[in-house]
Amino acid sequence: MTSSQAAPAAVKILIAGGFGVGKTTMVGAVSEVAPLRTEEYLTRASVGVDDLSGIDQKDTTTVALDFGRITVSSELVVYLFGTPGQERFWFMWNDLVNGALGGVVIADTRRLETSFASIDFFESRGIPFVVAINCFHGHNTRAEAEVREALDLDPHVPLLIGDVRERSFGRDALLALVDHLMSLPAGNAAESEPVPAG
Question: Where do the H-state alpha helices sit in the chain?
């Protein structure tokens, strides 16, 4: 890069959701580089702490963040930050949200309640988001209207249904977020300031 070339603009997007919904998988599917992961194996110490209902085959968990990158052009780079899902790591969200333009909340129709906290987090801070329903192995037990009602989503919040293992679905979720951001009135997106952990 010559001195006359400006550094590309950076955009930060959070990938959030409950424990085991596919956040690490989505970041890995869309990142152009090998994603940075902070996964650790689940041990006996997590028994009774982490709810493995419906995901009993899961043997690792994100303890800090997942990080990926997408270069849109020489002028724009998107940085993806996947949040940890378990309640004991939620304090990380307050740091990760700082400077974020928006978010993608991943939900699992078998365990929709695990995504309530992520939706509340974005709504309480006025941060725009979309919801991506991850249909594991093509398994979807609910219609879109039923999911919207269960998650108490505002009508303007985009909702997509697909498989986060597929790069095309992750791309579509990110594009839906961009479209959503562009449809909002100027200045409607809140400044993402750190909020003290409760």
Answer: 23-30, 93-96, 116-125, 144-151, 167-183
Structure tokens at 61: 């968990």
Distance CA 105, CA 107 (A): 6
What is residue 114's predicted lDDT score, i.e. its pLDDT?
87
Counts for the chain of helices (H) and strands (E), in that order: 5, 7
Q: Are 64 and 92 in contact (CB under 8 A)?
A: yes
pTM over 0.85: no
* Separation between Cα atoms, residue 90 and residue 150, nearest integer Å: 22
Count of C-beta atoms within a 10 Å radius of residue 86 = 17
Tens digits of per-residue pLDDT, 141-187?
A: 788 899 999 999 999 999 999 999 999 999 999 999 999 999 988 65
